[in-house]
Amino acid sequence: MLYSRMPDDQKSDESLVDAYRKGDSTAFDVLLKRYEVALRNFILSFSWLVSPDTVDDIIQEIFITIFNGIKEGGDFTVKGGGAFKAWLYSIARHRCLNAVEQQPREKPIGKHYLESMPAKLEKIRYYDEPDEAAELEELKEGLNGILAKLSDEEKQLLILKEEGKTYPQIHKIPPFDKYSVVHLRRMVCDARNFVKEEMDKWEKKRKI
Amino acid sequence: MGKEKKDLKAKCTDFELDLTDYVMGDATFLTKKKQEALFKHLIACKECRRQFWSWKRTWAVMVGKKQSERPEFRQKMDALLERLKSSQAKTTTRDARGEIITAAGKIYNLVKVKGRMSVPAIRKTTGFVGYPFYEAVGCLVTDKKVLLNKDNKAAYDSLEPRV
Hints:
The complex is a heterodimer.
Chain A: H1 13-21, H2 26-46, H3 52-71, H4 83-102, E1 106-109, E2 112-115, H5 119-128, H6 132-148, H7 152-162, H8 167-171, H9 181-207
Antiparallel strand pairs in A: 1-2
Chain B: H1 3-14, H2 16-24, H3 32-44, H4 46-68, H5 71-114, E1 117-118, H6 119-126, H7 133-142, E2 146-149, E3 158-161
Antiparallel strand pairs in B: 1-3, 2-3
Helix pairs in contact in B: 2-4, 3-4, 5-7
């Protein structure tokens, strides 16, 4: 297939940037749609203390920075490709670190205050996981199939947790009102353990 | 396995629930003391740290998917694209204005040196064909920098600098 006839969503980031610079205004739409969810995952992996609206704002700021960078002709192309993504995530990382610094050190959730991770733990993270963005993107592939294997109750429970509901709040919602708060906590942990084990199996298979 | 390692391993299971809750952002059972103990353990235990980062990533993907499906997020991103496109259009307009001003400068300098010149002669000398020639001439006439002479009933027949 001729490269120019290739659908936009199959084109490389760098060729989309190039097309955008040459006047194809839809090329930036494709880049934005390609990375908007990945960026949110990246930001959330830094901190859960930021609200969805704040994450929206951070994503918009990152895209404005990228847009201005492209417009001003910023040269981020390096041999081997993938340079756009590295540029995008370096901006995102910088912005996330600022957001983490600005956020309150603790937030009342449920009965107690949830504390921010200590700086020492944040520092170790970079040694443990030098390329977190790449791991996040790979994770998306495996996760959907694994979540489908959970029981209906577990799925529903995790959805309520994703919405930010605490255990006492979930305890008021049927069918979970039949379980104690302590039991709900155990159910969530078991679901997490199941996801973890399945993810480990999936990763092993992927590496073979 | 040394005693210290054994103790650490035994402790790992004790932190299972707290680790899960902390990543999911629920402090119902997490007192300040419990969170401090969890951080201390994570700093010391590489295996729990691996699980902690892994769960943090998994949870980010799950919550991220949910948040991205909010209609208000789609609206915000569409509005952003519109805003960026209009800012791009403004830049283009600014660039076009720059081109016209540059062309006007060239034309004005030419007729200032050569005096009255026919339009075809100006176009031939400057190399301007169509845009931005007429736009530039329009600016020069409006700004009263040149006189427009309608020779032989043809518009823009010749230009001469205004004294």
